[in-house]
Amino acid sequence: MRSFPVKNYLIFYRPIDEGIEIVPILHGLQDIETIFQDED
């Protein structure tokens, strides 16, 4: 998974054969580590 910032947001995406798949779009002030740990 990769990410890039846009203003106050982080856009997470995965490269796929057809292009990219946008996963979540999160506000930069959120606890991103906790959000992704909760998905396990």
UniProtKB/TrEMBL annotation:
This is Plasmid stabilization system. InterPro entries: RelE/ParE_toxin, RelE/ParE_toxin_dom_sf. Gene3D superfamilies: RelE-like. It holds the Pfam family ParE_toxin. Keywords: Toxin-antitoxin system. It comes from the Bacteria.
